[in-house]
Amino acid sequence: MRIIFVAFSVLLISILGIIYFKPEYNSAFEADQQCHYEISNFYMEKANLGCDHDLETRQWILYSIEDTSLPANVIKRFSY
């Protein structure tokens, strides 16, 4: 009985992990398009916004730069 419980728990955790870590977009192109779409439609009042591609984490990053001497503020990440 204990083995069945452990097997069921491992299966449930695996399924939840796959669902949680599933990328939002299927390709870098889709993530890039969404990033630029959000800049043009939701953040029009901010002038210092940009989208950048991070190859290591496979995501596009929407960021804001208030001052060039300070690090950029990440607003949103688009994983693919």
Account of the protein in words:
The chain is an alpha+beta fold. It has one domain. It has two helices and three strands, in the order H-H-E-E-E. Strands 1-2-3 form a three-stranded antiparallel β-sheet, with helices on one face. It is elongated.
Structure at a glance:
With 80 residues, this protein is α+β, with helices and mostly antiparallel strands. Helix content is 44%, strand content 24%. The protein has one domain (25-80).
Shape: elongated
* Pattern of helices and strands: HHEEE
Q: What is the topology, as strand order, of the major beta sheet? A: 1-2-3
Rg for CA atoms: 19 Å
User: How many strands, which pairing sense, and closed or not: the largest β-sheet?
Assistant: 3 strands, antiparallel
In the predicted model, the low-confidence regions spanning at least 5 consecutive residues are none
Q: Please tell me the total number of domains.
A: 1
Mean pLDDT: 88
Main structural class: alpha+beta
The proportion of strand residues reads 15-25%
Number of contiguous helices: 2
Distance between the termini: 40 Å
**Percent helix:** 40-55%
